[in-house]
Amino acid sequence: DIVLTQSPGTLSLSPGERATLSCRASQSVASSFLAWYQQRPGQPPRLLIYGASSRATGIPDRFSGSGSGTDFTLTISRLEPEDFALYFCQQYGTSPRTFGQGTRLEIK
Amino acid sequence: QVQLQESGPGLVKPSGTLSLTCTVSGDSISSSNWWSWVRQPPGKGLEWIGEVFHTGDTNYNPSLMSRVSLSVDKSKNEFSLKMTSLTAADTAVYYCARTSNLMPTGYEYWGQGTLVTVSS
């Protein structure tokens, strides 16, 4: 199985600041099939980024993804109040399609 | 507008069997998509359970494979999860989700989730 390790576990920032979230894979992710999700309390995950760097439909351009191989990054350029939530990465190129343990983005 | 809706019991006894159904609207279960189940224990992360294609092809998480079975019902446009030998560790919100087989994009569509509690 591909193990995804997200860092940091918790990120404390203020609205307007830039957030950088990391996802490291235990082995290379096939075809950069790496996705990022946002999850708010009581809601299902929401797809933000797929293919490591493509924004999903309706996702604001302040969200961007980058990386390849084993190292991936989600960047939120200017934090809005609604961005404070839980974020997960997932590799979907190899079965089982594993998730990272999550990064909690909280208001400082 | 693709929509997925989970249904099933909210409470299951230890050692019992869980059966959940995901009803799909706005898309055909026979389309070129993988239909998946993901679960999330309270306050914890996401765990991929497995996926099923309309042909009956399946992929399972090896850690759950011995207890899980996925199937598709084309006549009802729904797919199902069956999990046996439940313990308290299986208490979680269970989500169904869809991912494309032709242009893999991760899980763009999710159900709202259903909480399953394993308790006597």
Total helices of chain A: the number is 0
Number of strands of chain A: 10
Reported for the largest beta sheet of chain A, the result is: 6 strands, mixed
Beta-strand fraction estimate of chain A: over 45%
Q: Unreliable stretches of chain B, pLDDT < 50, 5 or more residues?
A: none
Which two chains form the greatest contact, residue counts included? Answer: A-B, 27 and 24 residues
Radius of gyration of chain A from CA coordinates: 13 Å
Report strand % of chain B: over 45%
Main β-sheet description of chain B: 7 strands, mixed
Could you report the average pLDDT of chain A, rounded to the nearest whole number? 96
**Rough shape of chain A?**
globular
Order of helices and strands of chain B: EEEEEEEEEEE
Approximately how much helix is present in the residues of chain A? under 10%
Distance between the termini of chain B: 39 Å
Give the CA-CA distance, first to last residue of chain A.
35 Å
Elements of chain A, N to C (H/E): EEEEEEEEEE
Radius of gyration of chain B over alpha carbons? Answer: 14 Å
Helix-residue proportion of chain B: under 10%
List the helices and strands and how they pair.
The complex is a heterodimer of chains A (108) and B (120).
Chain A: E1 4-7, E2 10-13, E3 19-25, E4 34-39, E5 46-50, E6 54-55, E7 63-68, E8 71-76, E9 86-91, E10 103-107
Parallel strand pairs in A: 2-10
Antiparallel strand pairs in A: 1-3, 3-8, 4-5, 4-9, 5-6, 7-8, 9-10
Chain B: E1 3-7, E2 11-12, E3 18-25, E4 33-40, E5 47-52, E6 58-60, E7 68-73, E8 78-83, E9 92-100, E10 109-110, E11 114-118
Characteristics:
heterodimer; A: 108 residues; mainly beta; 6-stranded mixed sheet; 4-stranded antiparallel sheet; 0% helix; 47% strand; B: mainly beta; 11 strands
